[in-house]
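Sample entry copied in:
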Amino acid sequence: MESDPSDVFIAHAGEDKNAIARPLAEALIAEGWTVWLDELRLRVGDSLSRHIDTALANTRFGVVILSPHFFSKEWPQRELAGLAAREIDNGTKVILPVWHEVDHDFIVKRSPLLADRLGALTKAGIGRVAEEISSVLADKQVTKTEATVDLIENPAPIPQGTSPSLFEIPATPDQQEKLLKDRPDWWEYRLYAGVLMQGRIRLEDKWQDHQLRLPRGDRRDIDEVSFSETMRRELGWMRRQVATMDRVFDPETTETAFGPRGEPGDPLLVRRIAEGVIGVYEALMDWAANLRTMSVDDDYEEIVELTARMADGPIRQVHSFIQLVADSIARIPTLEEEAAHMGATRESPNILTLTLSLAIDEDIQDELYAAIARVS
């Protein structure tokens, strides 16, 4: 059926169908993935726009073949806009670029946002492109976060042959107000996930700017005499921000916020914990962007950039954590059913543990220390 979800939607210009789109679709299908390609799914008389809009909404990823033909056609760019809208709405990666007969300079003049993303190169061969896309599709890496949730708090039998629906994540103030008014099951966790997603969506522009390593703020002239002390203070501030997360997830506070098992939680504390996570996330992005406004001697520019990149790991980890929380909380009805089949009871529940671990990339630290040693 046309509404059935697919793993991949291939957006392309018609001129690239024979050379790239069709063989790539065939290679991905051979790997076991479901692919939406117009000639494979559409039949005579089908509504092109309606079917494509449905496909865009029901595919996990959009493979976008960026080529000179692509940027000269309106329809493929409309498909790209639809995928970009999904990324903004969901706060997760959807677009997988494939570069065909283009380079970075060509793309940056037409789509600066896409130019920052690593693209698979067709000159490496369709097989290699398919392998790179397959590695993304098959990636099941899970990040963990700090809070304990009983999956079976009030176990209730689910009629055989039925499938539980997903929880809605209230990512807007109106949705959160309704949730608190109705107080349905698991409202504390749904509120937590909703406030996190609301914050991540609000900060999407800063996230994208950080991915592009853009400065933000007024220029700061730092002379050679004060450079070392300035950088020492900046690094100290960044490490203190990372350490703040320990206080955000204080066990006593989280237990009071979400409530002991069988008791309601505190909505104000739930909000404060979620806003604490978002506060650290935004502060680290602001810090890196502000650091890049420093005007220094040429010998010190690499040190400034590598110092700013020290925040990359924690920022990325919080970004992924928020998505994990939203996905996990939304799936609680399904998890309850699975737990019941595994024999979980109120006295002996299965536990869903979400853990946020912030870590600075060791490779970036090593590069920074090497850069400092060269200047010294």
Remarks:
- The beta strands are 6-11, 35-36, 59-66, 95-99, 120-121, 147-150, 220-221, 294-295, 351-354.
